[in-house]
């Protein structure tokens, strides 16, 4: 009787290491943060985010349509403050001088707010409010990987911004509000709080904190949502 020969079955190897973490933060964030819990890392996701935001800032100051859109928005705000024509011209001239720093601002301000300060906020939330024992470097890693969601959203919105010469590109409930309400608190708050990528980022952040702290997601996400809504509200007031 002839012996049956069988060829070895080669199963696809799973992604491993850094690229697996980056890809899984979009597809299976729990796997990413399980790896981060054991070995925190933040540099590469921060560099990716910085590159995307730097590109965003560069396009803002080089695309004629977006430059004009920014000037129009600034003009509308200044005219609403009852300034004289000379004061408005001086303010616009000052804005032109500092426009070259837009790419740097687009990178540094989000990194300082969301990684350096944000990680401290989530460490406080985790260890004080949730009773966990997380480390700062773990929260830095969680926030860094979560920023990849924001980076993806920026890459998707950029072509729309350029093609429409519109800085107010978002996927939120504010879309259903009239353009005349753009300067209202409600519009600005809704634009940030209900944006698709904001909601996605809050979900990923909740999963990350839950994994790092060995907590159920149902215990984490309400606090994450409340804190983010407070941030969105403060941002809307400041805009």
How would you concisely characterize the structure shown here?
By secondary structure, the protein is mostly helical. The protein contains ten helices and no strands.
Could you please describe the fold and organization of this structure?
By secondary structure, this protein is an all-alpha fold. It has one domain (28-238). It contains ten helices and no strands. The radius of gyration is 22 Å and the shape is elongated. The chain starts with 16 loop residues before the first helix and ends with a helix.
Mind sketching the topology for me?
Elements: H1 17-27, H2 29-38, H3 43-62, H4 64-79, H5 85-98, H6 102-129, H7 136-164, H8 185-193, H9 196-213, H10 217-238
List its salient traits:
mainly alpha; 239 residues; disordered N terminus
- Give the overall form: elongated
Instruction: Find the structural class using helix and strand composition.
Output: mainly alpha
| Largest sheet report | none
Indicate the radius of gyration in whole angstroms. Answer: 22 Å
